[in-house]
Amino acid sequence: MKIISRILIVLLILGFLQIQPVYAASFKDVSSDNTLSTEIDYLVERGIIKGYPNGTFKPNEYVTRAQVAVMITRALALKTTNVKNPKYQDVPTSHIYYKEIAATQNAGIFDAAKKFNPNGTLTRADMAIVLQRAFKLKGTTSPYYFTDVTEKTPGYKEILAVANNNITSGYQDGSFKPKLPLTRAHFSAFVARALTLSNPNLLKDPAYTYTYAYYSPDDGLRYTLNYQYSHNDNKNDVWTITNMTNNKPFHDELLYYDGSVYAQAIAQEYSSHYDFYIGLPLRIGVIVHEDDERPVNGNRITVQTTDGTVRAGGVNYKNVAILEESFKYIDVVKTYYFVDGIGLVKELHNGEVVYELLKRTAN
Predict the structure, then answer these.
(1) Residue 15 burial by CB count (10 A; 0-12/13-18/19+): exposed, middle or buried?
(2) What is the residue range of the signal peptide feature (predicted)?
């Protein structure tokens, strides 16, 4: 009986361990599998959000207008000294967030009015207006269709801007829900995305021949691969790959870029398909979800940063876009390091280097 009891205790402990969520480093109520945890952690690291004294963030509570003013002030590093009094009737100079509210109004982010309503909520349409003004987002005239947004919708142009900059794509049913109040988690995510917007050219430069070290996951050997630009097939840049170790050709690589999409594929004899497909501009956070209806299904792509660093081939690269790809049905995590105007400089699989750019040689 004692042995059985011990076994039961062990099983209970193991079961308990398995069902406990893993939490992100920032807050005890934001789990690491939360699709917005990357953005939340980003803001914490930069002192833009700090949470509550008990270590929680309360991600599902509605964000207040005063909290929005504080976050935007910190994100933009607005000056809070000698601010002009906006004369909101409900924001006296003794208000705990008077300086931040005044700073954002002085910057033209919030309108002049009789009242500010500091404890009021912020709708998704309000969010679009705040972010467009704060970050001077472009794209207010480019079309983007939502089922519940028309030219008469308050914040119409600003909604277009946040959508065209991939800050939000709305809901799966095609709606934007402009009147829906925002949670603290969602507003934090949108601020982090606006702060990290980047539109790099991820293509390889045809003026160069690229030499990579390839560490084969299949046989564990190191090969040297040369990538030589061949032509454009009216859609893709076609690169011929040669294994310099045995002087044998690889399949061609196809790279596609139109300013709003980047994709890559391996050309095969009978068919070609994009095995990596992302929208641009880039911004921090999940940009492809495994349940999305996308050209590539079953994978999740998360932008870890748009201004990272990496060392490859003895060169230290800055302003690196670091993307992580995980798969629903395959036990592998790929990490890509892209540099604007150069393309891929490094790729890891489960933390191990698979591709590393050694050099570029002018043609």
Answers:
(1) exposed
(2) none
Return the exposure string of 221-249: e unless at least 16 CB atoms fall within 10 Å of the residue's CB, then b.
eebebbbebeeeeeebbbbbbbeeeeeee
Helix (H, G, I), strand (E, B) or coil at 282: strand
Using an 8 Å Cβ cutoff, are 355 and 214 in contact? Answer: yes
Q: Which residue has the tokens 């003004």?
A: 133
Any idea where the domains of the chain sit in the sequence? 37-195, 208-362
312: Cα separation from own chain's centroid: 23
Rank 184-193, 249-258, 266-275, 296-305 by mean pLDDT and report only the highest. 184-193
Burial of 1 (0-12, 13-18, 19+ CB in 10 A): exposed
Please state the pTM of the whole predicted model.
Answer: 0.87
Region 199-225: what's the mean pLDDT?
A: 96
Give the sign of the dihedral formed by CA 284, CA 287, CA 290, CA 295.
Answer: negative
77-94 pLDDT, tens digit per residue, is 999 999 999 999 999 999
